[in-house]
Amino acid sequence: PSAVRPDPGLTTAGILSQSRGRVFSLAHTDRRVARGLFAQGVQDGVFWMALPVLSFEFATDEVALSGYLSLFAFCRALMTLALGYLSHRVRERGRILRLGAAATAVSMAVCGIAASAEGYLTGMSAANFGLAVVSAFLFTLLVDRSERTITTGMMTREAMLNAGRLVGISVTIVLLALELDLSASMFVAAAAV
Question: What's the confidence (pLDDT) of residue 24?
Answer without folding.
Answer: 63
